[in-house]
């Protein structure tokens, strides 16, 4: 199975109809997302029925399930259940011949056969879309479609601290693509992901290419799977039996938020301090006032003191500190917008980094967040004998 | 000017070519995004040249500008500038007749005339795409396209704490759409945005519809513009002359990160504490140990104590606290996953809220973040005479 294309159209039925017809010409399976809500501008089901040439009919069983959902919601929220009746009736209308994959709140996911082709109708809310989509291949109307497909072999290589140009050069040096092998090199969240896919009969050649490439990339390779960076950091901390704390200025809590986005992070993440003001750097993290006066809040010295304070005050063995100028204001000739100091401290040593990035406020903050996580990963992954401790 | 459609295609030149040809049939202006990088799998420019029926040629002036950029980058990062030569030459090849809109890093944005139609080629990195796109209408090749378009009048109404179904009912009650008036009702970040657009000659009718709708929605309307919620909160705090602190458990820094995402937030945001563990709730926020023992960390009492502690320890007049069970683990019959307690405290009073949400970890955390910001907004916006202070 190969993704042919993704098409986004407007809310009007003719736009949706035209889009569906075009996609059905190039694909065996068309999956729609969104436009299933209770409001008048959610028109996907109407358009699917028009393309199928069938009427919409009220499905009493579905109406019952939707009404049960809104009754429970009304009881929880203390609202009048009658309020939802009109929306429920709208959402219980489905194309004749369509089968229900499941309910996402009050929205039924649907599957419909159009000759040999299939249309799957899913809600737009990402988590609900994912849940219904994961169940879809088990549906009798869809099972045949997924049966005949072969999965291509795939190798993921993720690098940090090396430019996309340089990765491309090394990829060419490693041999580059060949028939039956297809590679994409993609920059995302300031890492470069190299994704090699191969037909099964070309798996050996692809594996050899990947091995040559990884050797050339060396220490820049930090992952060969899709585990999120924050989850890697937590796993390394768990293995070492240490807890992590954060001390953030310009990232304003983003590093802590990223670490705690991982389920089960509470056994490793002690907590964090967001110290935007100098007063809080002093009060919460014990940064010496004279250090702030001498070097300024955005300095290697203050980053180090923040990390040391976080270790001590937040009860963690390992701490990462970030202080910088995210902009657009606050920059100077000496300390321009985009300047960020980071520091990681642990029982086995400490490391600082000074970085200077281009881009706007959101870019600098995201980049500093990613850099802080990579510093934690490297520090936690490093052999402790490399450090003075 | 109306957006006809958005099409996403694969990285192969034939896919891009087919897509471009189809779009040029339905639109006067086609804007591409992405595929301009230095690597071999960035093939947009090649496909555009094929569709235009012109060869690629090396643009020496552009090569000079790109090389200046990579030379500066190499100097900053201490790498060998020769590394970038291959990528630079690739990126300096542009379709004959194309004009350069500007550089995004090493990637030239382009504009090309195909008869009366125009193709604009932009990079995929959102901030760089935006920058080049904003300059585009000034280009001589594009000026004509934008001249003849009329802007439709538009009314934005954002609500919180009311279901999409109920909004749809009230919209129908207010009169609903009419010829020349088009409305979309969209749920995003747990708010419902009602977007009414009208042709200029229908502006009066649309304004009357919006007025009726807003009257029916009452206090659920919190904004009639597109200012981000966090920016609204900061502006309200600024008007009152107060500073804000955050005390977060399950949201792990997301509330602080959202508040500090706004430029200039440092005059209002004092800072925040991410207290994942009970020990930190005690140490950083002064939550009484017996309160935690008696009520548990996820309780109205602890939320209130966290907010009080944040006000006192973080030097802010106003604090918001969030403690909850984001899941997937950690739930019980009495305190299930999705249970979140919030509390806002200020010199003019305090307010708590107990909420119970469905959804996964990311949903619960985002929803709690949004709820905390709305509590701040309501508390800061409320007349202080309503409170006991």
Give your account of this protein's structure:
The structure is a homodimer of 389-residue chains. Chain A is of the alpha+beta class and 389 residues long. Chain A folds into three domains: 13-147, MoaB/Mog-like domain (Molybdenum Cofactor Biosythetic Enzyme, Chain A, 3-Layer(aba) Sandwich), CATH 3.40.980.10; 153-223, 2-Layer Sandwich (Alpha-Beta Plaits); 229-386, Alpha-Beta Complex (Maf protein). Chain A is built from 14 helices and 16 strands. A five-stranded mixed β-sheet of chain A has the order 13-12-14-15-16, sandwiched between helices. In chain A, strands 2-7-6-5 form a four-stranded mixed β-sheet, with helices on both faces. A four-stranded antiparallel β-sheet of chain A has the order 9-10-8-11, covered by helices on one side. In chain A, strand 12 (244-248), helix 10 (254-260) and strand 13 form a beta-alpha-beta unit. Chain A is globular and about 75 Å long. The two termini of chain A are 53 Å apart. Chains A and B meet through strand 1, helix 1, helix 3, helix 4 and helix 7 of A and strand 1, helix 1, helix 3, helix 4 and helix 7 of B.
Condensed summary:
The structure is a homodimer of 389-residue chains. By secondary structure, the first copy, chain A, is of the alpha+beta class.
């Amino acid at each position: 199975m190969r993704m042919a294309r993704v098409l986004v159209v407007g809310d009007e039925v003719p736009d949706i109809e035209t889009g569906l017809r075009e996609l059905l010409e190039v694909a065996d399976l068309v999956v729609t997302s969104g436009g299933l809500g209770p409001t008048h501008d959610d028109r996907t089901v109407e358009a699917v029925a028009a393309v199928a040439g069938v009427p919409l009919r009220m499905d009493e069983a579905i109406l019952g399930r939707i009404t049960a959902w809104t009754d429970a919601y009304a009881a929880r929220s203390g609202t009048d259940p009658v309020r939802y009746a009109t929306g429920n009736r709208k959402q219980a209308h489905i194309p004749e011949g369509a089968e229900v994959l499941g309910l996402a709140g009050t929205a039924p996911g649907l599957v419909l056969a159009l000759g040999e082709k299939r249309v799957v109708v899913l809600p737009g809310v990402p988590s609900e879309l994912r849940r219904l989509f994961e169940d879809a291949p088990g549906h009798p109307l869809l099972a045949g479609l997924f049966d005949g497909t072969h999965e291509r072999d795939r190798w993921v290589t993720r690098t940090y601290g090396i430019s996309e140009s340089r990765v491309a050069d090394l990829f060419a040096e490693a041999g580059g693509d060949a028939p039956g092998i297809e590679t994409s090199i993609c920059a995302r969240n300031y890492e470069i992901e190299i994704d090699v896919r191969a037909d099964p009969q070309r798996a050996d050649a692809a594996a050899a290419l990947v091995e040559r490439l990884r050797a050339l990339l060396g220490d820049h390779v930090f992952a060969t799977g899709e585990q999120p960076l924050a989850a890697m950091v937590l796993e390394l901390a768990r293995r070492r039996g240490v807890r992590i704390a954060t001390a953030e200025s310009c990232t304003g809590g983003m590093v802590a938020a990223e670490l705690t986005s991982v389920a089960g992070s509470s056994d490793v993440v002690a907590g964090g301090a967001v110290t935007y003001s100098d007063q809080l750097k002093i009060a919460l993290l014990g940064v010496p006032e004279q250090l702030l006066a001498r070097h300024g809040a955005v300095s290697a010295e203050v980053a180090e003191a923040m990390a040391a304070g976080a270790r001590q005050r937040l009860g963690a063995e390992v701490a990462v500190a970030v202080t910088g100028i995210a902009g657009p204001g606050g920059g100077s000739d000496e300390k321009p917008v985009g300047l960020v100091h980071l520091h990681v401290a642990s029982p086995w040593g400490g490391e600082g980094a000074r970085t200077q990035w281009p881009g706007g406020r959101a870019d600098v903050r995201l980049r500093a967040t990613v850099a802080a996580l990579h510093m934690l990963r490297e520090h936690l992954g490093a052999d402790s004998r490399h450090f003075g401790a």
